[in-house]
Amino acid sequence: MSAMQLTKIDHPAAWTAKSLMEQSDKWIYQLSEEDIAELDAALQQIKATGLVVPKFGKQDFPMPKLAKKLESYLDSLSSGLGIFYLRGFPMERYTKDQASAIYWGIGSYIGKPWQQNARGHVLGDVINEGRSVDDPTARGYQTTSDLDLHTDGADIVGLLCLKQAPEGGENQLCSAVAVFNKVIEDNPAAAQHLLETEYCIDWRGEEQPGEKPYYKSRLLNRLDDGGIACFCLTDYVRSAQRFEDVPRLTEQDLEAFEAFKKAKWDESLVLRLRQVAGDMLFVNNHFMMHARSEYKDADERENRRHLRRLWLETDIWEGKRPAAMGTLLKNAREFWEKNDVGVPMWDHL
After folding, report:
1. Which residue, 157, 162, 266, 302, shows the most beta carbons closer than 10 Å to its own?
2. What is the percentage of the chain residues whose pLDDT exceeds 70?
3. Domains in the chain, start-ordered, CATH in brackets?
4. Between the CA of residue 22 and those of 25, 109, 265, 333, what are the distances in Å?
5. Are 336 and 128 in contact (CB under 8 A)?
6. What is the mean pLDDT of residues 45-61?
7. Any idea which of 126-140, 187-201, 286-300, 321-335 has the lowest mean pLDDT?
């Protein structure tokens, strides 16, 4: 790829924090009492039929009026701004299980569940499991640590806040498209190197039996329409260096990583928000990166910071997602899914 092709991308997802807030009406939706009543009715229908997560889908969770209202927001989530924030859900009226069932129902209107880990979870718990990011088999969401801006492993990532931490736990979000444009502006050689270079990424112990403990991917991927899809897991690229057969990172690699990190943490590009209990955040994992600030957890188990996460597969990204994302989906369907023993993932707090 020649330097002449390194042109900035004009796309709705190439937003700054300021420009995104100026169009908040396109991605923030405040639930009305009518909406909540419809969601509650759908929950009662689920309870009456004895269905539990993950054993029900869109057809079992009717919310026709709200679904119509959300159409433009979900279109923008998939192919526009890449973010959707649902506010005003009255968490205090529901148990964690009930709120999670409603969240699952809403998610079913966005995409198909995608297994998130080797345990086969399709509704994952983002909660302090007492693990450390220094543990090569741990994932960041199992800790209280500050997390760098990164992508996850699906088309759409959703987060429902059940309980927020007493201190910290702020979400940080940025547009990977805007970051790419920034790197082109500041360091075009780094942008070109990231587009052309494939890296080894640590499976963190979640590979299929008999397969290598890492897989390969570019961190920036050109789309057929001229856009860009990001697959930013530089921490896992670095941890894959523990394997002897993985090529060593070069000075050029490290310089490109630093240029990318500088661009993504540019204050003009970072949106900071702190979900409160009941808030539901959905982001397009190809267009956006997300992070979390370190948090101090409550001592009591029932008051710990607790989010529930969805990874979703969407039809619009079929045949378009980066090759590494296809690798993750294949692993999820062929290996992780088999490890789901079908037990509802409730903690009954």
Report:
1. 162
2. 91
3. 27-339 (3.60.130.10)
4. 8, 27, 20, 40
5. no
6. 94
7. 126-140
